[in-house]
Amino acid sequence: MRTRLTRRTLLAAPFALAKPGYRYEFPRDHFAHWDFRTEWWYYTGNLFTRERRRFGFELTFFRQALEAGATPSAWGTDPVWLAHLALSDIQGARFLHAERLNRSGPGLAGADAQRGFVWNGNWRAGPTELRAITEDFSIELALESKKAPVIHGINGVSQKATGVGRASHYVSETRIAARGTLQYKGERLALDGLVWMDHEFFTHQLEPEPSSPAGWIA
Asked: Cα(17)–Cα(168) distance, rounded to whole angstroms?
C-alpha cells in the first residue's frame, strides 16, 4: 500500500542536526549523509607538468535536500545536485569554468560508497580518483591521501553560531598526492601535484543576524 506524503509526515521526519559526539568512520564518511539537508565535497589542487608548467583546479559537488521524509522518485527534484569546475592556466593567464545542475534521476547524479565516488553527469570524485570533462578541457587524476583526515571543531562538530545544532560536521584531507592527465588546447599533458579536499554536512542555515564569536572563523 502506497503511503500518502503529508505535511504531518514531513514534520515527523525532520532533518538531523549536527550535534556533539559524532564519531567519524572511513570510508563511510567520505560519502553521503542523507539525514542532513546540505552537503558538499570540495576538491582544490595545484598541478604541474614535467616542465613545471602550473595549473590550478577546483571541482566541487553539492547536495541540497528540499523536504525531510520526501518520497523518493527517479524523476523527482529532491535532492538537487549542483557541481562547479574551474581550471587556472597560470602560465597562459587563462581561467576556465563550468557548472551543472541535476536531479538524481536514473543515475544522473549522486553519491555511492560501493562505487567509490560522488558524481554529477560525467564529473566524479572520490578518495582515489577525480574526473571531469568539458568542451574546453578534461582532467583525470588518481588520488592517494598522505595524511589522516582532519576533523574540524570540537567533539565532532564545527560550531557556526550559538545554540545546539547550529553547526556542521566537517572533515578535510589536507595532503592528497595526485597524478594524471589534462586534455587542454589540443594537448594531453601529464600532471602531478597536491590536492586538498573539504567535506561538510549539516542542516542548520546561518541566521540573518551576525554570528556569535564561535562562528565561521572559530
From this structure: 8
